[in-house]
Amino acid sequence: MERVALACWDDFEAQLKKLDEEANAVEDARGDVRASGYLFRGHGDADYPLQTSLERFFARPLSLADYYRLALVAKPRLEAFTGRRWELPSQEAYAAWLEGAAGSTLDDYPAYDYLAYLRHHGFPSPLLDWTQSPYVAAFFAFRYPLPGAKAVAVYAYRDAPDAKTASSGAARIHRQGPYVSSDKRHFLQQSQYTFCTRTDDAGVVGYIGHEQAFRDVSPADRIRKFLIPLSARRQALMQLNRMNINAFSLFGSEDSLVETIAISDIYLRGGDL
Questions:
Q1: Which burial class, exposed, middle or buried, applies to 153 when counting CB atoms under 10 A from its CB (0-12, 13-18, 19+)?
Q2: Are 151 and 250 in a shared domain?
Q3: CA angle 37, 129, 90 (to 5 degrees)
Q4: pLDDT of amino acid 177
Q5: Same domain, 147 and 71
Q6: Which helix (H) or strand (E) holds 94?
Q7: Looking at the domain assignment, is residue 238 inside a domain?
Q8: Contact call for residues 27 and 249 (beta carbons, < 8 A)
Q9: Which domain holds residue 259?
């Protein structure tokens, strides 16, 4: 993982221009410009790791089959409460898919819409959420900096699917695209997701942490961590608010409207929170 320490908000915007130039210059073996762009993620403390809610909830790694069984337990009650219906493969069908997909990049991720829904509503999830917008990621970084933080972080990740290995024991990062029926926040925030796996010698596919996966994957996958000082917070939030990137535009709730009013009418006018 490449760490890039920046001095101010303007430095961050200069780095974004470099990322655009780099992405546009990447070509595959046929000479065609690749369409795969960067994903971004913001952290309110530069020292906070890339960690899923599943990692924080469980002390031990879970296999994909075990996690799917736990996710199915919630389905009847969620359907009864919400009135929604999810057509999901049975545990046996899911196990059969896993057996056939153990050596692949798991592009066809069964129950993706249901698992993304669970992720948005607080169920422990192996999905790490990213956004296609570096400015949305920056908003989440500066929105609520953690106590004691001196800098926030914005991660930039671009995968290289053509270079992914399929050997047993290799870490893999799987990128799941934006086209999924999920919570409205998924679309407001331009969300995509990643999850990481490893296949053991017995052929069992298990989830692993992103920090570990980023250490092990092919260098063709690019991951950068931009460190932005907390002193840039007011300038960043002011510019983002001018771009209509704020809590209300990203959540669309009554609570987020109140938060946005407080930020724009107090903090950005010179008050302190």
A1: buried
A2: no
A3: 110
A4: 74
A5: yes
A6: helix 91-101
A7: no
A8: no
A9: 243-273
In this structure, are 83 and 131 located in the same domain? yes
Q: Write down the pTM of the prediction.
A: 0.86
Report yes or no: 18 and 4 within 8 Å, Cβ to Cβ: no
pLDDT for position 34: 44
pLDDT tens per residue across span 151-173 = 999 999 988 655 555 555 778 88
Give ∠ CA 203-178-171 in degrees, rounded to 5: 25
Rounded to whole angstroms, the Cα distance separating 36 from 60 reads 33
Q: Which of 259, 251, 230, 253 is nearest to 9 (CA)?
A: 230
Average pLDDT over residues 262-266: 90
Q: Which of 203, 133, 139, 206 is nearest to 171 (CA)?
A: 206
Asked if 97 and 4 touch (Cβ cutoff 8 Å), the reply is no
Specify whether the backbone of 224 is left (phi greater than 0), alpha (psi in -120 to 50) or beta: beta
pLDDT per residue over 41-100, tens digit each?
A: 999 999 999 999 999 999 888 999 999 999 999 999 999 999 999 999 999 999 888 887
Q: Which residues contact 216 (CB under 8 A, 6 or more apart)?
A: 170, 171
Euclidean distance between CA atoms 271 and 115, whole angstroms: 40
Domain count for the chain: 2
**Which amino acid would we find at residue 66?**
D
Q: What pLDDT, on a 0 to 100 scale, did the predictor assign at position 167?
A: 54
